[in-house]
Amino acid sequence: MAQAWRCKGLRWSAQGPELAWDGGRRSTLTWGKRVAFGVAEGGVRTCVGARGHACPVRAVVPGRSTGARCEECARLDRAHSVAADTIADDPRPYHVYLAWFGPGMTKVGITAVERGSARLLEQGAVCFTWLGAGPLMAARRTEELLRAALRVPDRIPYADKRAVRSTLPESAAERAAEVEELHARAVALDAWPESLTREPCQPVDHAGAFGLTALPAAVGEVAELVAGGAVSGRLVAAAGPDLHVETGGGGVVVVDTRLMTGWELVPAGEEGELSVPVRALRQAEASVQDGLF
User: How far apart are CA 276 and CA 292, in angstroms?
Assistant: First the structure.
């Protein structure tokens, strides 16, 4: 029987996207590389635990869950999350950023300065710029200021991001336009926290890092992995947690690598195989952020 590996999800480094596995192994992903994995017959998906600790009961979790955690582990994980506003005394400096995912889809967020642009790659931000840097609570107040004054959301659904990736503007200047305009409006606002240092608009474009140039439109997205199912094909792009995989005769499908966590995965044999549930990709809308500009 083939050796099984537990996937820990997609990681982004200076070298590009990598699949991480229990035990520290990494699989570097490059465009055109064959991606092939499956779930053994009789396999079950178990909770990935919280904060680096295994789930004490190895609870079985649903195949469609992107968190791959049982209720108790999900609660523990969120209890120590900056995103959940549960760590007010974090001494690290934080960046406030504007991230663009497609026309009409710009969000505001924060990330620890020490992480650099890793958070933006993990979210699949096609273009971004820093707004400022300072203590955590100052960064939080600035984020709230933009949400209230400019109606900028702090979340963009992944389904919306996927819907527009193959139809993005061709030039980096076009992709940066909304971020530049919003940055100018943001820095003109009063009531910025005094402890937050404002930063100039310097858009960073990730279209090349993600492989989005001439990206074929996806025909669907993997809904979940199942026992006995497999995915095999050629990698054409990756953005955030998503792999865009060209399968045999079926076109390009999006694989959210968060659905791979918690499974014991084995190598897939047949080239171009796709034997897991697939659903239609959400259609792009004219704008999901009406009234921003």
Answer: 39
Strands (DSSP E) found in 192-257: 197-198, 204-205, 218-222, 230-239, 242-247, 251-256
Nearest by Cα to 162 from 221, 98, 110: 221
Cα–Cα distance, 153 to 99 (Å, whole number): 10
Over residues 117-135, the pLDDT tens digits come to: 999 999 999 999 999 999 9
Task: Report how far residue 164's alpha carbon sits from residue 170's, in angstroms, rounded to the nearest whole number.
Answer: 12
Instruction: Provide the residue type at 177 as one letter.
Output: A
pLDDT tens-place string over residues 238-281: 999 999 999 977 789 999 999 999 999 999 877 778 999 999 98
Please give the structure tokens belonging to residue 267: 């190598």
Cβ burial, residue 112 (10 Å; 0-12/13-18/19+)? middle
Q: Residue type for 21, please?
A: W
Model's pTM, two decimal places?
A: 0.91
Tell me how far CA of residue 44 lies from CA of 39, 40, 52, 261, in angstroms.
9, 9, 21, 11
Half-sphere exposure for 23 (CA within 13 Å, toward CB): 7
Strand, coil or helix: 24: coil
